[in-house]
Amino acid sequence: MEKRTFLKLSGIVAAGTIAGCSPLKKAAGVSTMGRFPYTLPALSYGFTDLEPHIDAMTMEIHHDRHHNGYVNKLNNVLEGTPGMQTMNLEQLLATIKPTDTALRNNGGGHWNHSMFWTWLSPKKTQPNERLTQAINQKWGTMEAFQSEFADAAKSVFGSGWAWLCKDAAGNLFITSTPNQDNPLMTKITDKPGTPILGIDVWEHAYYLHYQNKRADYIGAFWKVVNWNRVNELFG
Ligand code: MN
């Protein structure tokens, strides 16, 4: 079987599994992605649906190859560490030490991408009143918030993510992490929190369409943010 056909078939199998057990369920707070063995979540929209802001080829390669790679490598690592197989992904992230390189990169990669797909939507959505009030209280205006978030995303040196998080008291803050780290890795990050919005600024997320113009990609990101999801995670 050709690799491409196999990828498509595994995507279909994964989609079937997800319809059954709903790993991205709409719970309050951070969604759980279940436990080992992890599967690649299906997108709730088509690869072409975010165009022209995010192009179809970037979406397909990003989801079917990059994200699928993190899922497979995460499962491979966990095959050899039975003690960690019973944890859910968030529990796993909270136990990862800086030296757990494979778990850190692939556990983070799976969580970050599973969330990222849900933060995008071809439908026009808006922050609700409660979230708007919280943003205005912290940053003054939505534009000021977007500007600080964009600055955090632009300032990531090399590969990483920028995040809008809430802390344990429910207060919002912006942070960024390198590589596939995230603010749920409490033994690694210096600013722990629960991400309610994140942007992938690895070059694989934008280079085909935007080349070196990361700022243009960040500008386009706002056109496809799924605020319904951010509202839900803010709670
Ligand atoms: Mn990525």
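^ manganese (II) ion complex. The first helix runs from residue 3 to 21. The pocket of manganese (II) ion is lined by residues 62, 66, 113, 200, 202, 204-205 (CB under 6 Å).
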